[in-house]
Design goal:
Blueprint: H1 2-14, E1 20-22, H2 24-30, H3 34-46, E2 50-55, E3 58-63, E4 78-84, H4 92-101, E5 105-111, H5 114-123, E6 128-132, H6 133-143, E7 146-149, E8 153-155, E9 157-163, E10 166-170, H7 175-185, E11 191-196, E12 211-216, H8 219-225, E13 229-232, H9 234-237, E14 243-248, H10 253-272, H11 278-285, H12 289-295, E15 299-301, H13 307-314, H14 324-328
Parallel strand pairs: 4-5, 4-6, 10-11, 10-12
Antiparallel strand pairs: 1-3, 2-3, 6-14, 7-14, 8-15, 9-12, 9-13
């Protein structure tokens, strides 16, 4: 049994030679216990076939070239896609439909926090993630277990004024955080400190009406209905990006190319008819259909997202360390416009 499991693990690792993958992916892919997988990986590490790095409670495997000469092909037809609770991904039904036509079943997991969605991608809990580009880039040097397909939509957020000067509320290491950084840096708001929220529903429970909130649709829509005023839009802050598609290194090159083509095709189709699939998207996210319809005009397909945007963004949180090339290596080159 042990030798058989060892061979199965080696066969699986062979598909990812030269890459970093989450250790948690192994036991999920093979349907075996974590402890047995860990024992065999320890053996492979001692033999110099792999290296492992601990990041908090997670472990990342670097698979060295030449781990096995045996040819094997792992066929997968199920994909887990993480998204953030938002009106942003109105093109998602088109993307899922295109993959379904190829025989792939997509399970959508909705997170309330963008960093949690990206962490799930890095840890191998999901195969794909639509999450904020700042967080994807920020986590990449630690994990290197995924790549990014530049593309998506932009827009769909506001700086909301609560009344009088005070704190500014934002999600952490996200597009909202970047917008907060710009608003404060350009002295567009009189904020005395930053308070981070994890779940946007926390904003609807605020008892004190002072300061500012940077948040996305449909949260700012709910705040406006409660009488608060939106004072700045993405155009005012010149924010030209939001969420992009992260793909786990556990996804083979052939499937990754399929995902990339279908993702870009879905965006193109969405741009021509943005109201297609709203009912399905409402069923996935739980956002009211009438509210989703107000989001259609808020988002525009990104045009010209490239390495320069990555450089400008990362300079806001990592001006010197690590070297900028590390972040550029997160981007799939053939996805750069």
């Amino acid at each position: 049994m042990s030798s058989g499991l060892r061979e199965r693990i080696i066969e699986l690792l062979r598909e990812h030679q030269g890459s970093h993958i989450p250790q948690a992916y192994i036991h999920r892919a093979l349907g075996v216990s974590k402890s047995r997988v860990s024992e065999i990986l320890s053996e492979l590490e001692k033999e110099g076939l792999i290296s492992r790095t601990s990041i908090g409670r997670s472990k990342v495997i670097q698979v060295h070239p030449g781990i096995s000469e045996k040819t094997t092909q792992v066929v997968r037809k199920n994909l887990r896609l993480g998204i953030v609770y938002s009106s942003e991904y109105l093109y998602l039904p088109l993307f899922i439909k295109k993959l379904a036509r190829r025989g792939y079943r997509v399970e959508v997991v909705v997170f309330r926090d963008g960093l949690k969605a990206t962490r799930a991608l890095a840890d191998g809990v999901v195969d794909l993630a639509l999450s904020p580009l700042p967080g994807q880039l920020y986590m990449y040097p630690l994990y290197r277990t995924y790549k990014l397909i530049l593309g998506g939509v932009r827009g769909g957020f506001r700086v909301v004024y609560l009344g009088d000067s005070g704190p500014i509320y934002s999600s952490m290491i996200s597009t909202m955080d970047y917008a907060r950084h710009r608003a404060v840096g350009l002295k567009m708001v009189d904020a005395n400190r930053t308070i981070y929220y994890g779940d946007p529903s926390e904003l609807l429970k605020l008892k004190k009406s002072r300061g500012y909130i940077v948040t996305w649709h449909p949260v700012y829509y709910d705040l406006e209905r409660r009488g608060f005023k939106s004072i700045y839009s993405p155009e005012d802050l010149d924010v030209q990006f939001c969420c992009t598609l992260g793909v786990s290194n556990t996804v083979d090159d052939r499937l990754r190319r399929i995902i990339q083509r279908d993702f870009q095709a879905a965006l193109s189709s969405y741009e021509k008819n943005p109201e297609r699939g709203l009912e399905y998207y409402a069923s996935i996210t739980g956002i009211d259909l009438a509210i989703l319809k107000t989001a259609v005009s808020e988002y525009k397909v990104v045009d010209g997202l490239n390495g320069s945007v990555v450089d400008e963004l990362t300079s806001s949180f990592a001006p010197l360390v690590p070297a900028r090339d590390v972040y550029r290596s997160a981007i799939l080159e053939d996805s750069i416009v």
